[in-house]
Design goal:
Length: about 140
């Protein structure tokens, strides 16, 4: 009977989840934490982007005060490219203040994503967890 070293078995057990992890794409409709905005994430060339599919009156008013009276259809998640099996990096546009920030989008599970934007080099960062509301 052949004996397999314990270290070999342990390394196979640890490596298996990494090998089995398939890349995911967060296409679909996602709602902001406060429920004021819904974004449709879709393929944009080689990358993904997220356009406003629906917004509350409050969100529309906030965007208008920032100089953007037509919030519906605006691209808020811009040019996100894959950086890992469940992570993307790109730019986040915040119409209320008319600014773009470096950001990441992480697919936490089939029902939630975390979007993180930072002012400069991981300083002044803010994260939000968005919930899937449609395909």
């Amino acid at each position: 009977m052949m004996r397999v070293p314990v270290t070999l078995l342990l390394s196979l057990l640890v490596a298996t989840p990494v090998l089995a992890q398939k890349p995911v794409t967060p296409t679909g409709v996602w709602q902001s934490p406060g429920g004021n905005t819904r974004i449709r994430i879709s393929k944009c060339g080689q990358n993904i982007c997220g356009k406003v599919a629906w917004a509350s009156e409050r969100a529309k008013a906030d965007a208008a005060r920032g100089g953007h009276p037509n919030l519906i259809g605006m691209n808020l998640f811009e040019d996100f490219s894959r950086t890992g099996p469940n992570q993307f990096q790109g730019r986040v546009f915040v119409p209320d203040i008319n600014r773009r920030f470096n950001g990441t989008l992480t697919v936490d599970n089939p029902k939630t994503i975390t979007v993180r934007g930072c002012l400069v080099r991981n300083t002044g960062c803010r994260s939000e967890t968005w919930t899937r509301v449609g395909n």
